[in-house]
Design a protein that fits this description.
alpha+beta, Nucleotide Exchange Factor Grpe, Chain A, domain 2, three-stranded mixed sheet, elongated
Length: 213
């Protein structure tokens, strides 16, 4: 069978055209590769360099040092608290001991005050002979050595904590406040504790003159 050369050429051309058409269609219909045609996302900023990590041995040593320092601070606070408690306890004991000593001296010396009053009255009237005067002086020194101090002098400002006013004997223009004019009996005290207040007669300052009308 004789073929038409022209006819076979036309068929070959058509096949070639179909092939050329199919190739672009397949390329156009195929999905684009991932990321194709899109700009690449910028990389996040890199973290700052933290530096070399400490060796595990050094980290453990630092932890042990911190714990030791904390325990030492706690022990120091405990010692300071115990020291403060001991100081307060010692002060209370010393104060109580002094109060007990004063009470004991008070019990011993209180009856001797009447004897001292008798000596004072005899001395005022010059009724002490040489022998008895020496004994009286020695007794007063012993009493003072035990801590009982005599007080109360004429001319002192009247103090209700130290003096007992037996009577007011008028006014005195020479004084500005109520003043002890006469000491009937001396006062005695042990430390800050008044054993007996001084018994006195007092005078008041003169009243201001009223202006005449």
């Amino acid at each position: 069978m004789t073929q038409d050369p022209h006819g076979s050429g036309d068929e070959a051309g058509e096949v070639a055209q179909e092939a050329e058409v199919e190739v672009p269609v397949r390329e156009q219909g195929a999905p684009a590769p991932a990321g194709a045609g899109a700009e690449p996302a910028p990389d996040p900023d890199p973290d700052p360099d933290p530096g070399p990590a400490p060796p595990p041995e050094d980290q453990a040593a630092d932890d042990e040092l911190a714990v030791a320092q904390m325990e030492a601070a706690e022990r120091l606070a405990d010692l300071q608290r115990l020291q403060a408690e001991f100081v307060n306890y010692k002060r209370r004991v010393d104060r109580d001991r002094e109060v007990l000593a004063q009470n004991a001296r008070y019990q011993v010396l209180m009856p001797i005050i009447d004897v001292l009053d008798t000596i004072d009255r005899a001395r005022e009237h010059d009724d002490l002979d040489e022998g008895f005067r020496a004994v009286a002086d020695q007794l007063e020194r012993v009493v003072a050595g035990l801590g009982m101090v005599k007080f109360g002098e004429a001319g002192e400002p009247f103090d209700p904590n130290l003096h007992e006013a037996l009577s007011h004997i008028g006014e005195d223009p020479e004084v500005e406040v109520t003043t002890c004019k006469v000491v009937a009996k001396a006062g005695y005290r042990i430390g800050d504790r008044v054993v007996r207040a001084a018994q006195v007669l007092v005078v008041d300052p003169a009243a201001p003159e009223r202006p005449t009308q």
